[in-house]
Amino acid sequence: MAVPERFVKKIREAKYQQLKHLDLSISVFGEDGEKLTKIPTEIFNLSQLEVLDLSGNQLTTVPESITKLTNLNLLDLRGNKLKTVPESIGNLTNLTLLDLSYNQLTTVPESIGNLTNLTHLYLNGNHLITVPESMGNLTNLTYIYLMKNYLITVPESIGN
């Protein structure tokens, strides 16, 4: 399926203007508009991006290419249909906020513990039974949202 033209136009504009914030969320295009089912590959050439909002779309995967966006400090993927997140997400070490809430995640990659600059982590509204022990490495984390999951235990290392 081709990427809807309005998304392509916004991505081109971001590249041309060297924008640091790209909002391709449903809030920009409205409830009735077409939604993204995959992340357009053109986004991964926007190395200057610091904020990427893809919330409220129909995304089912996050490609490994996301790691090209090394300057990201906010990544909002809430309200999609993500079942997994790649292990490479742990390479986005400048992230301070990661929102993966209201998806269909059953696991979180161990590499999430590499995101030591995170202050906000939203994992609520998924299908998680457990979270990785490595989350104890997130010593700058001030807000973590885990409600509305199926958690049996939470590692004691969280909150250290």
Would you mind describing this structure in some detail?
By secondary structure, this protein is mostly loops. The chain has a single domain, classed as Alpha-Beta Horseshoe (Leucine-rich repeat, LRR (right-handed beta-alpha superhelix)). 10% of the residues lie in helices and 11% in strands. The chain is built from 2 helices and 6 strands, in the order αβαβββββ. It has helices at residues 5-16, 26-29, and strands at 21-23, 51-53, 74-76, 97-99, 120-122, 143-145. The protein has a 6-stranded parallel beta sheet with strand order 1-2-3-4-5-6.
Q: What is Rg?
A: 15 Å
User: Spans of 5+ residues with little confidence (pLDDT < 50)?
Assistant: none
Give the CATH topology.
Answer: Leucine-rich repeat, LRR (right-handed beta-alpha superhelix)
Strand order of the main beta sheet, please? 1-2-3-4-5-6
Number of domains: 1
Global shape: globular
In short:
With 160 residues, the protein is mostly loops. It contains two helices and six strands.
Map the helices and strands.
Layout: H1 5-16, E1 21-23, H2 26-29, E2 51-53, E3 74-76, E4 97-99, E5 120-122, E6 143-145
Parallel strand pairs: 1-2, 2-3, 3-4, 4-5, 5-6
Task: Supply the key terms.
160 residues; little secondary structure; Leucine-rich repeat, LRR (right-handed beta-alpha superhelix); six-stranded parallel sheet; 2 helices; 6 strands
